[in-house]
Amino acid sequence: MKLYGLIGYPLSHSFSKGFFAEKFEKEHIAGCRYDNYAIPDIQEFAGLWQQQPDLQGLNVTIPYKEAVIPFLDELSDAVKQIGAVNCIHFKNGVKTGYNTDVTGFGNSLKPLLQPHHQKALVLGTGGAAKAVMYALQQMQIAFKVVSRQASATTIGYNSLDQSIMEEYTIIINTTPLGMYPKTDACPEIPYQYISSRHLLYDLVYNPAETLFLKKGAEQGAATKNGHEMLILQAEASWEIWNK
């Protein structure tokens, strides 16, 4: 039996297990199983493949996309630049880290882009944000990172005035704000400056329309949630595990 799975904590919101169970059934893929491994401490990762010698590959979610890196033997070029992993391939005892969020995000954003979508605000600074920034660089879209605390590389939410909002017409939420069950939360941006020129993209997929996206749509913006990105990154993971 070839084993695949997801590590993170908690995993009550996991999309991956259902996706792969359906994929295995629909595509008649035999001898494979995908399980959730909710580990409360990243140190437990070290013993996981000893307990599960049939593990072929793992996906990685919050909060371990960065913390897992020291446990890996090799990293893809993208991971070396991004500093975040969401896919691990086990082969001949070697654990290699990849980032398929880049592929998933980039390929789901591209069809939505209009000529005036030249600059983006990236809300959040975690592992998912790093993949988004890498993808934006590849697409030659300039961006600013927005954080609760301003720093040398970020601006604070309180800096978002009308001129910034009008200049940066793509707004990407990489934070878990608004994710089920806390659906009444959203990033604190000045939604009154959003217009039909804006594109709001939320990496959250549950609920399908977060408060962030709802507020954007009310202002006439185009919106997209993270569901397609998840499907694309999962398929990219499957390709890595089976190449």
- The low-pLDDT segments are none
Number of domains: 2
Strand order of the largest sheet: 2-1-3-5-6-4
Q: Total strand count, please?
A: 12
Tell me the β content. 15-25%
Number of helices: 8
N-to-C series of helices and strands: EHEHEEHEEHEHEEHEEHEH
The CATH superfamily of the largest domain is NAD(P)-binding Rossmann-like Domain
- What would you say the CATH architecture of the largest domain is? 3-Layer(aba) Sandwich
In whole angstroms, the N-to-C terminal distance is 18 Å
**Biggest pleated-sheet summary:** 6 strands, mixed
Instruction: Write down the Rg.
Output: 18 Å
Shape label: globular
**Would you tell me the structural class of the helices and strands?**
alpha/beta
Identify the CATH class of the largest domain: Alpha Beta
CATH third-tier fold name of the largest domain: Rossmann fold
Mean pLDDT: 96
Helix content: 25-40%
Description:
- The protein is of the alpha/beta class.
- The chain folds into two domains: 2-99, 3-Layer(aba) Sandwich (Rossmann fold); 103-228, Rossmann fold (3-Layer(aba) Sandwich), CATH 3.40.50.720.
- The mean pLDDT is 96.
- It has helices spanning 16-26, 45-51, 77-82, 101-109, 127-138, 162-167, 211-218, 227-241, and strands at 2-8, 32-38, 55-60, 74-75, 87-91, 94-98, 119-123, 142-147, 154-156, 170-173, 199-202, 222-224.
- The strands form two sheets. Strands 2-1-3-5-6-4 form a six-stranded mixed beta sheet.
- The radius of gyration is 18 Å and the shape is globular.
- The chain starts with a strand and ends with a helix.
